[in-house]
Design brief:
The complex is a heterodimer of chains A (about 120) and B (about 120). Chain A is built from no helices and eleven strands. Chain A is mostly beta strands and about 120 residues long. In chain A, strands 2, 4, 5, 6, 9, 10 and 11 form a seven-stranded mixed sheet that branches. Chain B has strands spanning about 5, 10-15, 20-25, 30-40, 45-50, 55-60, 60-65, 70-75, 85-90, 105, 110-115. The chains are: A mainly beta (about 120), B mainly beta (about 120). The interface between A and B is medium-sized, with 28 and 29 residues.
């Protein structure tokens, strides 16, 4: 496999469920990201794991919990979600170098999440 | 505050009818401006990175240009397979300690090309 792989592609869950989204990158990158894409809204950065540091958007609710066990794998743990959390969740990776110009992100195909 | 505004929101073209998409931005020190293409149900696919005003890049029927305040994505003689949502994003040096993933995205322009 090549690129960035996300599973599952689709997920339907109730508000009391606990589920996890998985992402794996096969590009040898050193940074991974979670983005949220809602209808009619721009992509919103949720979490970054870069150079062994975690950076997060302070507006993300605590019902979303990321985990990055190594530079190739990234998880997003979900619990007690709300219907407004229904969206496309995208994982991305890049080769980070803070002293240089921006490098492009490589995105996975996303997990389409529906919260009932 | 860094910001990206894309226009138009939607654009319908006939095959072969050239046009341009606009991306206006404000950023505290531009680290890079990015164009992505996104097909329905898929993640964004990278097209171009522009770093400084005056820079231009081309790929097949697409050409991206950059000024100090905006970027244009020119589409020459488009085909139906060019139909997609085109996203613009900027990255500034001051965001989140410089991490490259901190792209500020616009809402996108949905392009439809009819045969």
């Amino acid at each position: 496999e090549t690129g960035v792989t996300q599973t599952p592609r689709h997920l339907v869950m109730g508000m009391t469920n606990k589920k996890s989204l998985k992402c794996e990158q096969h590009l040898g990158h050193n940074a991974m990201y979670w983005y949220k894409q809602s209808a009619k809204k721009p992509l919103e950065l949720m979490f970054v794991y870069s150079l062994e540091e975690r950076v997060e958007n302070n507006s993300v609710p605590s019902r979303f919990s990321p985990e990055c066990p190594n530079s190739s794998h990234l998880f997003l743990h979900l619990h007690t979600l709300q219907p407004e959390d229904s969206a496309l969740y995208l994982c991305a990776s890049s080769q980070e170098n803070r002293d240089r110009e921006g490098e492009k992100l490589f995105f996975g195909s996303g997990t389409q999440l529906s919260v009932l | 505050e860094d910001q990206v505004t894309q226009s138009p929101e939607a654009l319908r073209l006939q095959e072969g009818e050239s046009s341009s998409l606009n991306c206006s931005y404000t950023v505290s020190g531009l680290r890079g401006l990015f164009w992505y293409r996104q097909d329905p149900g898929k993640g964004p696919e990278f097209l171009f990175t522009l770093y400084s005003a005056g820079e231009e890049k081309e790929k097949e029927r697409l050409k991206a240009t950059l000024t100090k305040k905006e970027s244009f994505l020119h589409i020459t003689a488009p085909k139906p397979e060019d139909s997609a949502t085109y996203l613009c994003a900027v990255q500034g040096w001051g965001d989140y300690g410089g991490s490259q993933g901190n792209l500020i995205f616009g809402k996108g322009t949905k392009l439809s090309v009819k045969p």
